[in-house]
Structure to design on (331 residues):
């Protein structure tokens, strides 16, 4: 495993991390979840990602059970939660005060996550989306206070614009508060703009760290959907039709088919090619893996010796297949 500073912070995060969206408490059983976390930890992964909203809160409960059972030293791993969407406990119902980034919900969601995860503090606490109904100033104060109370160590954002992140930093500077350390954006061969263009300046100015999600675009970058619809996969889960429709667009499948041919010529499996491509970007602090089977995680953990294969020449060939180079401002 390789480790890297999370942005300009001193926190050493493993370059591969492990998350539980749509798997824990939903697609897989608790024994598989335990097996996956053990495989991750034994493979050197030190960051486990979670959120209040995953499986309505159940995902954090499953992870908390495993953390307690394993008894790993608390200072040997990093665990996160995210606030915004609320934890509906599977009911599909939330009161107006049970979501968003207002002080009340940010504080209460933190307490609830600590309980579900069975830990005394969250290493990372993310604002899962921007909240247009709460002044950023209120959220920055709430996060700062949680850090002062020892309940959170670092706070960050997810899918915020560069402008919103900078506004949080401006507020933090104005009142001498702790600003956001990291952002959690989607980044993979099919979705590139935020990581490659929008945040370009703030990696330098505020030292933004990134914990990227869906490196395999929910599995389509493994090539498993190239020739029809396989059984027992994420996009087959009931209620995931919106994701399926978005991802299995003709244009995406065409690119993945060409990439799969390319990966065969290279002698690297498609999942490893897609993960190595993400890790090659130096502004990516950690790539959050998802897995529904232990064999998938075991394969993904072997990605590091594939990165040096991606020479400039090969990256150009990939770029030609992807045909989605983000447009950068001229100056
Ligand atoms: P991926 O895009 O990597 O998708 C993971 C899925 O791909 C697996 O569950 C599995 O699905 C399939 N897969 C993984 N490895 C292999 C392999 N080697 N061979 C074949 N199939 C494979 O990541 P996720 O979308 O799961 O995102 C990772 C994490 O990021 C989440 O768990 C969560 O913590 C975080 N996240 C954050 C978001 C945010 O808004 N901040 C949003 C989404 C995720 P299958 O069961 O179909 O085989």
């Amino acid at each position: 495993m390789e480790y890297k500073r999370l942005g300009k912070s001193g926190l050493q995060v493993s370059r591969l991390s492990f998350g539980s969206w749509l798997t824990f408490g939903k697609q897989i059983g608790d024994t598989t979840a335990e097996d996956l976390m053990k495989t991750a930890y034994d493979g050197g992964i030190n960051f486990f990602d979670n959120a209040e909203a995953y499986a309505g809160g159940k995902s954090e409960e499953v992870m908390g059970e495993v953390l307690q059972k394993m008894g790993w030293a608390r200072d040997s791993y990093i665990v996160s939660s995210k606030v915004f969407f609320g934890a509906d406990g599977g009911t599909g119902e939330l009161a107006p005060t049970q979501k968003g980034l207002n002080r009340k919900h940010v504080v209460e969601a933190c307490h609830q996550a600590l309980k579900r995860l069975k830990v005394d503090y969250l290493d990372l606490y993310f604002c899962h989306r921007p909240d247009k109904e709460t002044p950023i100033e209120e959220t920055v104060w709430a996060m700062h206070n949680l850090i002062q109370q020892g309940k959170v160590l670092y706070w960050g954002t997810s899918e915020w614009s560069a402008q919103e992140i900078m506004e949080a930093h401006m507020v933090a500077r104005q009142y001498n508060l702790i600003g956001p350390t990291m952002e959690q954006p989607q980044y993979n061969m099919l979705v590139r703009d935020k990581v490659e263009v929008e945040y370009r300046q703030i990696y330098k100015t505020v030292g933004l760290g990134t914990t990227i999600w869906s490196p395999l675009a929910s599995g389509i970058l493994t090539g498993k959907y190239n020739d029809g619809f396989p059984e027992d996969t994420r996009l087959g889960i009931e209620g995931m039709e919106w994701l399926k429709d978005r991802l299995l667009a003709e244009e995406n499948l065409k690119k993945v088919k060409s990439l799969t041919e390319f990966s065969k010529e290279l002698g690297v499996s498609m999942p490893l090619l897609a993960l190595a491509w993400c890790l090659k970007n130096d502004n990516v602090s950690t790539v959050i893996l998802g897995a529904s089977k232990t064999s998938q995680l075991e394969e993904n953990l072997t990605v590091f010796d594939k990165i040096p294969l991606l020479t400039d020449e090969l990256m150009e060939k990939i770029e030609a297949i992807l045909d989605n180079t983000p447009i950068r401002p001229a100056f």
Remarks:
- The longest helix spans residues 250-266.
- Residues 3 and 299 are 19 Å apart (CA to CA).
